[in-house]
């Protein structure tokens, strides 16, 4: 068996180590990785000390072997997709049903920026929130990878009115992605700003913050609003919760996280997402925002950069 | 214009008063009411002092005039349905699209017990919670009108495992409706009892209680569980809320109330409900549970009885 190169800041130091080549199962593709996205989940795994796990949950690369029955994925095909682990490496196995074909005009770096961010945003906006044409969407952390993907998808797929929150140096990126209004959450009560912009309130809220925004989110939600809780970077503990805020406006508070879901779920989501968006990526109406590239050997620096919350858009590992 | 009889405990005393005959608009049916259901919404309206409103939000009766284009509703047709107000009366206008045809074998009393309870339960279980075949459902206030309807629907439509909470004297009614386990919430921690019965937890929770059950509900919810908040009889104020309970299990907390929704929504719900259930009411697989009848002249006694929370199943006003 051929040894391949593993790169991770966990395990034996921060450099490059050798591990066995992954062995594809039936239904999987063996991929030679060209670029890999950096995600908060990787930071969480480092913090949790899962030392035997190769980090990395999304990749773009080329098919080496097709162990599925899908004839699209002949060796040489360029694909991207989410994997459970193992993305910070030379090779990984990707279930064929979770593979996205990369358009000819797209680079591997751009393709590696798509799966986790856009699938998360698509799932939240379309599957969970059932976003309707012309509704108002509030996207917190608007300049994060998922945030920028959500702004683009809400605009492009549903012609939504999009309001984002971000720190001032990230406003331009949110506007460039299509936001109609970007709020400086450091100086402005965003609930008031949402109502000033649209008295109706926010039909859909994408929330990565949690406790520190909770009361304001419920306050600015519209009747029949859907509040999608993707992450709780601003804490978990809500000190007081008036259920009338949920009952009177018929709100839905929906917790979600893509990574732990089943492969069947991820496959169905990937298929629905590809059907809705492939053309839009080809024409450039959807375009991943890349913040920066790091070499695979500098994984640790890439993770520290993400932890510092300095990025606008996606951080990519590549060669 | 012919005067008709209005009965309400608000307004001019507790007896019977004369009011103008309702005038049907295009799309509506004029109904001669045979029976009317008593609902908590009526109590709320009394408490709110809406003195000029005729109480009553669901009726069964016979079509006097058909002002819609639907040929099913010729005069003489027996129908039931939810109305915005005016059910405690001789006549009321009912949008044809919100009218359910009463099966030949069914009495008006049974028919008047269907709309509010079964439509609420159907909406919660099927539309909002998207209940799947074989899932586990926890129904609080299992012997209430909505509770018994929910137990029957979860069993009949989705072969769910149904757990109910109720006080001991109401357990037999819950079992008769199809519950697999009924918990005495006065002596038993229901969250523990749910997990003892099904370690997986409750996929769907129908909650009329709110704050006093909130923590336990989130504790016994299954991964991907849907917690439908219909009412908050046990209070609104939750003192501490750990968002990880929502995030880690990907829960959905969904507030709902049928009455304030649009006629278009109620019409669509009524049509979906009729398509799914008419045959089951005809065969007796679904059967409303009637607690008691009151004469229309004893409206006040009927409402006091409901306020005392003594009923098992539906309270009906009739002649």
From TrEMBL, chains A, B:
It comes from Periweissella fabaria. Residues 13-317 form the Enoyl reductase (ER) domain. This is Narbonolide/10-deoxymethynolide synthase PikA2, modules 3 and 4. SMART domains: PKS_ER. The keyword Hydrolase does not apply. InterPro entries: ADH-like_C, ADH-like_N, ER, GroES-like_sf, NAD(P)-bd_dom_sf, Quinone_OxRdtase_PIG3. Pfam families: ADH_N, ADH_zinc_N. It is an enzyme of class 2 (transferase). The gene is pikAII. Keywords: Acyltransferase, NADP, Oxidoreductase, Transferase. Its EC number is 2.3.1.239.
């Amino acid at each position: 068996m051929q040894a391949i190169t593993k790169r991770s800041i966990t395990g034996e130091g921060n450099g490059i180590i050798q591990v066995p080549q992954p062995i594809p199962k039936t239904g999987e593709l063996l991929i030679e990785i060209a670029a890999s996205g950096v995600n908060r989940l990787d930071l969480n795994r480092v913090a949790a000390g899962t030392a035997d796990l190769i980090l990395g949950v999304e990749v773009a690369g080329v098919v080496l072997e097709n162990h599925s029955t899908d004839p699209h994925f002949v060796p040489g095909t360029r694909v991207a997709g989410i994997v459970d682990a193992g993305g910070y490496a030379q090779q990984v196995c990707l279930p064929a049903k979770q593979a996205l074909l990369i358009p000819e005009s797209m680079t591997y770096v751009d393709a590696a920026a798509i799966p986790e961010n856009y699938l998360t945003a698509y799932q939240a906006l379309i599957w969970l929130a059932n976003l309707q044409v012309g509704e108002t969407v509030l996207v917190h952390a608007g300049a994060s990878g998922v945030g920028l993907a959500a702004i683009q998808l809400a605009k492009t797929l549903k012609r939504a009115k999009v309001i984002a929150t971000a720190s001032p140096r990230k406003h331009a990126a949110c506007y460039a992605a299509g936001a109609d209004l970007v709020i400086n959450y450091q100086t402005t009560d965003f609930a008031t700003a949402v109502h000033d912009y649209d008295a109706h309130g926010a039909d859909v809220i994408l929330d990565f913050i949690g406790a520190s925004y909770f009361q304001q989110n419920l306050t600015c939600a519209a009747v029949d609003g859907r509040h999608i809780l993707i992450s709780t970077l601003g804490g978990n503990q809500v000190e007081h919760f008036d259920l009338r805020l949920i009952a009177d406006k018929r709100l839905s508070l929906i917790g979600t996280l893509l990574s732990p879901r089943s492969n069947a779920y991820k496959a169905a989501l990937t298929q629905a997402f590809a059907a809705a968006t492939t053309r839009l990526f080809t024409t450039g109406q959807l375009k991943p925002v890349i913040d920066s590239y790091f070499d695979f050997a500098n994984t640790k620096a890439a993770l520290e950069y993400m932890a510092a919350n300095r990025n606008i858009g996606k951080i990519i590992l590549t060669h």
